[in-house]
Records
---
Amino acid sequence: LTDVFSKRKRSQIMGRIRSQGSIAERHVANLIQKQHYKFEAHRRDLLGCPDFVFPRRKKVIFVHGCFWHQHKGCNRATCPKSNRAYWSKKLSGNTRRDLINRRLLLKAGWKVLTLWECQTIVSGIEITSKRINRFLDS
Ligand SMILES: [Zn+2]
C-alpha cells in the first residue's frame, strides 16, 4: 500500500502531531506553575521518563499525546491508513510500554496521573486543572 502523502508531507504531518504533544505539555506546565507546585521535569532515572515529577509527594504526571499513546476512544488516536502494519506495531508497542511503566511506578510507591493532550485544550483545561489539584493535594 502506498501513502497518499509524499514522504516529505508525511514527515511534516507526523512532526506536527509530535509538537502538538509538547504544546499540551506546556499547557500543563503552566497549570502546575500557576498552582505553585514545584516539579522536576523529565526525570530520566524514572520509568517512562515522566513529564512532571513531584519527588516529595512521590507523584508523577504524564502528559500523553493522543496519537502516540493511542488515547482510547479519542478521534486523535486513529492509525494512519498507509503502512498500517508498521504503525499498529509501533503504536501498540507504545501503549504496552506505558502500561508496564505505570505498573512498575505504582509498585515502587509512586502515584501516577495520566493526562491526555485532548484534555489540555481550552474547553477541558478547567477540569484538568482541578484534577491536577486534587491529585497533588490528596
Ligand atoms: Zn485524546
---
Amino acid sequence: MTPALPILMYHSVKDEAPEATRALSVRPSAFAQQLRHLRDHGFVGLTFGDLWSAVREGGALPERPVVLTFDDGYADLHEQALPLLLEHGFPATVFLTTGWMPDAGRHAAGRPLDRVLSWSQVRELAGNGIEVAAHSHSHPELDQLSDTALDDELRTSRGLIEDGIGRRVDSLAYPFGYNRARVRRCAEKAGYRRAAAVSNRAAGPGHDDFAIPRLTVRRSTTLRRFAQTAGCAGLGTAFAWTAPSPRATPWCAVRATP
Ligand SMILES: [Zn+2]
C-alpha cells in the first residue's frame, strides 16, 4: 500500500513574532523537537517537488516520507530554521511572496506581515537543499482577481524566482489556500506543474496535482499532536487528495486579512 504522505505547512520559526503571524509561528525549541521526532522515527525528508516527482514519475519513495514547507518567505527561515534543518538532515520547500521581499526594488508589492527573506538569503537557501517555489507576487486572494491580474500574479513571481536563483520553478502554494477551479487552471497555464493547498489531510497518489493538501503546524501544536499529524493518525484516507471547500480552512480563519 502506498503510504500516506504528510506535507507539513509552517510559516515562521521564531520566539517573538508579530501578532499577525504569531499563531502560525513555531518556537525554535519546538521546531527542533519536531525535527528530532521525525529523525528518531525514521522519517525521510523530501522537497515538495521531489515528492511529486517520486509519486508521479515513479521515483523511489522512502518508507516514511515527510515534506516540510514554509509559506510567505519570512527571514527566520534562513536565520532560525535553516541551521536546524541542516543539523537534522531535512530539506524543505519555501513558497516565496516575491513582491514582499525587502530588495524587491521596482517589483515591490503588497504588505509583508513580518520581515521577509532577501534575495541573497534565498540563494543561500537554494544552495542548501531548499526548494524555492512561488506563493504569488503580492499575496492576494487569487480567486478574487480578474483572469489578467491572476495570470500576472502567477507569472511574475515565477519569473522573478527563476531569474533570481537560475532554476526552473514548478511548484506553487496558493495564498490562504484559496484555489477554485479557475485559479487551478490558471496556475497550470502559467507553467506550474503542481500546487499546494491547505486542507489538513494527508496527501496520497489519488490527488489533484493543483490542490495537494498540507497539514498546518501552529505555535500551539504540542509534540504529541505533531507526532499524530506527521504519522497521519486520524487524518482519513491517503487516497482522498482533492481539496474540500477551498475557503473552509483554519488558515483562512487565522489570517482573514493579508
Ligand atoms: Zn501566505
